[in-house]
Amino acid sequence: MRTRIAGGTIVTASERFAADLYLDGPRILALGSGLDLGVDHEVDASGCYVLPGGVDPHVHLDFPTLTTVTADDSTSGTAAAALGGTTTIINFALQRRGEPLPAVLERSLALAAGQAVIDYGFHVVVTDLPESRLAELDEIVRAGATSVKMFMAYPGELMIDDGTLLTVMERIGALGGLPMVHAENGTAIDVLIRRALAAGRTSPQWHGKTRPTILEAEAVHRAIVLAELTGAPAYFVHISCDEAAREVADAKHRGLPVFAETCPHYLTLDSSVYRDDDFDVAKYVMTPPLREPRHQAALWGQIRQAGLDVISTDHCPFCLVGQKDAGIGDFSRIPNGVGGVQYRLPLLYDRGVRAGNITLERLVAITATNPAKLFGLYPAKGTLAVGSDADVVVLDPRATTTITAAASPSKVDYSIYEGWTCAGAVRDVYCRGTRVVADGQLRGSAGHGRFVERGPTTPV
Ligand code: DUC
Ligand code: ZN
Ligand code: ZN
Ligand code: ZN
């Protein structure tokens, strides 16, 4: 089937222009004006922006913690993502200690098979990998999982030591893949948590107050040193503060292949939510926590200057009732994470583009093109070009998006953005040529989405 998306403004990471976009089955056939190509279906996009489908490289679905599992599975999470203009997510496959990495990937692939509305990949979270087993990384890279995530936080649960960080970075880098790092000094944070609890500071606000910015920046610095030593690239997830972002920017200035993301919540909310002992504050228990307001301008500045490369959502939802409430009386038992996969584009269009913090082209770069390049999906995904996958978003800047948890297919029972209204609305979304969202309504169904085998990383 051939579709013409007519009369819109096409936006890529580098330019915008008025043109029609032609889709032929799962691929982009042509871009241009006045072309004489037969079509079966015409969509009027006048007054709208036509963008590449979003790539969200940091989403937790069916993701287990010590005591529970994220509220969203592959179906509910990808349905919400589609409504937000995302056509590819990269989910996490968590290694149980001792488990061979290829088995981790197979287990996650089996769980997701036939469940997703949009395309998906996996990063394997490495929690345990002695040097004698490094060859397992070669196998998962061959299977199309070309990035791995490691935690420098959560000792005894997810944290790996610096030696493992070094050897895994080195091997993944040599394979053309990308090591991802959750950078926080986990053992120092654990001391602060134990002291707070011992002093009777057990309410959720103390989550925010026991994870200081300097322990994030220290870990970023340490991981950059290890990456430099090995020659590997490094990608830092969820950078939340000025100090940590500066470490990344300094490394880039020294010519190192160091990349980083931040998330919409660090750009739109701040630590004033950690103000009293109310358990409702558990809504904002995410890691790293929200920071003081001064960090927001610093992060926007780094996004403009390419100190930060990507904005992911770190969608990691847990219900307040039945999940987060496990931490009543002990904040360290609250599962860490918040939802947000559906709202990246409206939040960044409103607070980023409309507020004058970034251009539309930069919005496309940080939500589609850059993650596609870094995670080995480009140019099939992340751009609007002849031959690329027909992953397309029609964004109507005249419409508005009102955020409410009750109206979302996500199964989480609250939103940190509840009641917010953003300028701009995702009107239509195509994933490999199939219209998965039409007029803001979900049309796609579970099983349309496919596992995408990813290639080597490309610098941005
Ligand atoms: N890190 C994440 O990336 N997501 C949720 C919690 C965490 O610590
Ligand atoms: Zn993390
Ligand atoms: Zn430093
Ligand atoms: Zn995460």
From TrEMBL:
Carbamylation allows a single lysine to coordinate two divalent metal cations. One of its GO terms (cellular component) is cytosol. It comes from the Bacteria. InterPro entries: Amidohydro-rel, Hydantoinase/dihydroPyrase, Metal-dep_hydrolase_composite, Metal_Hydrolase, Metallo-dep_Hydrolases_sf. Residues 49-436 form the Amidohydrolase-related domain. Keywords: Hydrolase, Metal-binding. The modification N6-carboxylysine is found at residue 149. NCBIfam families: D-hydantoinase (TIGR02033). Belongs to the metallo-dependent hydrolases superfamily. Hydantoinase/dihydropyrimidinase family. This is Dihydropyrimidinase.
